[in-house]
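so the lab meeting is tmrw and i was supposed to have these ready like two days ago... anyway. pasting both below. for each one the top line is the aa sequence and the line under it is the structure tokens. i havent really looked at them closely yet so no promises
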Amino acid sequence: MPESHRPTMLAVDDDPHVLRAIRRDLSRVYQDKYRVLASTSAAEGLRILDKLRDRGEEPALLLVDQRMPEMTGIQFLDKSLDRFPLARRVLLTAYADTAVAIDAINRVRLHHYLVKPWEPPEERLYPVVDDLLSDWQASYQPPYGGIRIAGHRFAPATHRVRDFLTRLQQPFRFMDVDRVDLPELDDVDPAELPVVLMPDGTVLTQPNYEELVEALGLTASTSRPHYDVAIVGGGPTGLATAVYSSSEGLSTLLLDAYVPGGQAGTSSRIENYLGFPAGVSGAELTRRAVAQARRFGTDILSPVAAVSLRRAGRARMLALSDGREVSAGCVLLSTGLSYRRLNAHGAEQFEGAGIYYGATAAETTSCVDQHVWIVGGANSAGQAAMHFAQHASRVTMLVRADSLQRSMSQYLIDEIEQHPNIRVRLNTRLVAAEGKDRLECVTLHNVLTDQFTTEPAEFLFTFIGATPRTQWLDGTVMRDSNGFLLTGADTYPGNILPAGWDLQRYPLPLETSVPGVFAAGTHARIRSSASRPESARARWLQP
């Protein structure tokens, strides 16, 4: 952490040997998160406090010796009160001064007195300091000039705003209106929550995604009316195609209805992605890919969805959700999947209020020291379990199958089995969710014993499969019975060309039933593949 961003500990003692010892012991444990300052003079110590105040910095802890020549430790702490009332104050005393220290508890709001010597520090110093720092962190609210979100913690609308800004990787501070009084909200109707307070003073009430993007100054425009390549969907497949296409000098447009990254962008850790031997978070992978695509000249529009597709001679026309229309020489469809919803009584009413689809980073901080429930037994569920186990007091996985081996990679199974905070309940279905304004409990069914149990639950994350986002292409591009796009040989069974196909050749690998429109990624059913699908699409870019 940068030096200027760390809170400060200040030790004051006129005995240089004692001062060196306290500074040594504090630095050994706390120097990564705190600056440890020391002074042999009370007057110098007060000057240090004045400098901190002038710079807008806050000391977390003051450790001051009682017997000093210029002033007593109690007098020093008394003078520090008006400067930094939130700082935790510790008086260093000898056994003979304990009565004085006890008397000072109320007078100078003394938090603790520490009798010298404090050896061993592991028993007599660090537990005391740990408790005081924990209290200080809970009460201290550093000045913040960034984006603030005010709303009810478990309101679905609040969750949507928090999740969107998190996926955009925009820092913000969330304030629960049920716990914090905000003068800025005195004139705001509670029905208008959540409210987003921008640094420039702009107040957005119940903003949609487009309003948030505009307020952030992230609204993008197309740089041309026609592109060589248009990509619909900003997951890993779409981003990779954008990098490859634009790096070859092709004008490239990437559209995403939400935020680039797709479902992979919400993954807490991806450990089997090529080139990242230590693993990488979905957010970091997305950040790198977006930066790379933009560096090569890709135009990225989000949140903008494609709503229809049609051919116009050699061009493919995409109608967009914002009313615009763009044309492209070829189109890649990589719209990905939508999480399948829970088939459990009452689950729908708690979406965003205790039930979440995917491992939403926006809720991670809320799950600290909580019991987290995860529904699903595939890799995404396993990755989420490992992620939440770092913060939650306990993670319980609900798996319908009788084994994780059916759908999870072995490396994840091994990690889950070895983690003390994760419990796996096999042969278990979630059948009901209950609560008032938020999720409070779930009913589970063991399919082997036919036993039903109801257990308290506040945070439940689901990973139970997904369905392709291809409804907007119905009647335009061939799909199978599950909605997956057909490509290559699957579009001409029995060597019968697709309806409306007007070329004297069969569809290419990854090409759909519409000439010049390709599909790749999790929403496409691909029988045959090409090592470089962009080489096939390039045929449509030649005059």
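ok protien two:
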Amino acid sequence: MRLVVKETPDAHTAVVTGLAWAKTEKQFELFTCADDQTVKRWDHDGERAVTKVDCPSYCTALDILPASADGLVAVSFSDGSFALYTKAGREDKRIPNAHRGGITTIKWNYEGSAIVTGGEDGLCKVWSKSGMLRSSVAQQAHPIYAVAWSQDSESLVFCCEKSLTCISVQAGQKQTSWKAHDGIVLCCDWSASSGGLIVSGGEDCRYKVWDSYGRLLFNSQQHEHVITSVAWAPDGKTFAVGAFNLLKLCDRSGWSHVRETTNTGSIFSIRWSLDGTGFAGAGGNGSLVFGNLVDRSMSWQSLDVALDSSLNTLVVRDLLHETIEELDFRDRVIEFSVAHDHLVVVTNYQVFIYAITKGILNTTPQVEDLKEAPTLILQSVGVFALADSQGLHVLSYEARSLQRLRYQGMRVEFFTEKTVSLTSDMVAVVEKNSVRLFDLHTGKQVMSVDHKQEITHVALSQHSGEGKRFVAILDKNKDLYLFPAHKPHLEKLGSMVDDFLWNDATDMLVALVDQTLSCFLYPSVVFVDNTLLPLTVATKPCDAGNFAQLVSFHGPHVLIRKADGSNVAAMLSPYPLLLYHHIERGRFVKQSECWACLACQGIQARELNTVEIALAAINEIDKVQYVAYINNLPDEVLKTAELALFCKKPDEALSTLLSHRRIFRAIKMCIRLHRWEQALDLAVQNKTHVDTVLAYRARHLKQMRHVEGSEKFKQYAAEVPHDWETVQAKIAMEKERERN
């Protein structure tokens, strides 16, 4: 990845103190303010000022709500006031004496319902969108130089002296404050899309990456000059850093993609365009600097796709056939994605869909016009989706519109590959502590699953058919959970998980667990018998280090990106992958993980003979005996109930027996589970086998050398005779009746 840097000298006659992007139809325009007491509106190239507004005081900061077509421009001033302007340059409202001394920073929240200001008086204040003061959330002894909103607009982070502070906008909530730098902290930003990461820069000439709890994730080397500005990209994958005559583009984990020298003086503010393809910087000598991302690349199987420096051409390299194709477009390429035998390219006005047949790119695309440029592309087998302000638009690879998902409160601008997952029949969307599941055929919500912690990553299994889909989620505590797409039943797969990824052709799942590579060969084993889970996990040491990310999991091949940006390739055992294709052919290999997977698949398919063989191969003798017992039961109802009990679902097992009026078996199962009260209630309610319950209870108490303490059991024991031989005879009659 590289930056193409372009400068607009003499954009202002004094220091440019603030800038922000606004959306106009399918283009973006830039607003800037400076110490020359002017606010200017520029075209999307930043070459020509369309509007100029003279202000009564020195401008110190500027912000605009980009999601709103008629959003107001908020400008703060050195006299302690701020004003709201329309995009045409008309002053809508002015709030005088908002702070004592100058206002150093001003920011809209993501909903456009509130504004936060920080000033030289050490106050951090929240205002309504009409300029009414709501609250003073913080009072510091020193000036506040920067402030940023959290994704949910419920919290703020601000810098003061050498510290960063996270605080809720609601009164009475606990705040978190920590020493961030050895010098004064000058800038900070809070990512809305990368799990709540915070980046800061200060007079110690370093920039640092933190989580929202104040834990240091990355500390840069010392630069020549102080860090004056930082800004996260909309997708949270990268951030930009500005200093004196310096621009840096960095990965979310901190390492630097590119470093560029400029002639702008200190860059006091950086703002990304809404599509994430570039950013603008405010220069200390009155100039503007623009950085566009080029040489962005993606790989899939033998194809490597990269965007060249013209921003209008994609270069496709086929490493297997040693060919190079150049795809030229009339408009600038906004985003592209390659997966599942298709290349999808998005420009400002159109989407182009290229088919890949046997690894060879078909250069004749399907083309579809767009109402607006999307911010995210998701791909799956048979379908892909584009996220824009109108919702999530799902299309086939023949450019046929299938569904447009939209619901109240949907925040498309926060969608990333980790918070939205797509399959051919379903979409999963993360909303803080919950996951919404939508059916693509109807467009309606199927289910919403709540979780006790904030969810940072969701992914749908790609291989399973309809009705057998699974959803994996990773929460803020790095715990990995799995649940069926048709039932809100969460089971834990692992802890200390940094990242995870489903295989593109099977239901295997790979995860980075405590700096080791773990492959869950059959994750749904947790719904069958979680004691078999360790037997179905293949682990492999990998030199990935902290904060590594999984890039792809194709076949047995895993690609890992380390924290320093280098890629590490890992090869898993091919046998579990082949298991999915060769079970029916009777081709087996002596590997315990494969036998464990086969046992779990056999239980789900009710192939109990296969289950016995597989469990015997991994020496699970107790389970072999129990499965043999189930296999010898006289009818399917009893087998279904016992299999549910084997899968640790006792309530489901009892429900099965009671729904088929197998009262004796239900009572006996309650006795086996030591649910004595429930067994007695069932017997009394159905007026049968009360003596059976009492006899087993008496025998149990005698063996345990306990004394009866239940008044209910004492009462029925005195009223109902319960001879052990008589009870055994009744049980034998029940079993004979079942066989006949």
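from a quick look at the 2nd one: The domain at 430-572 is CATH 2.130.10.10 (Methylamine Dehydrogenase; Chain H). Confidence is low (pLDDT under 50) at residues 583-587. will dig more after coffe
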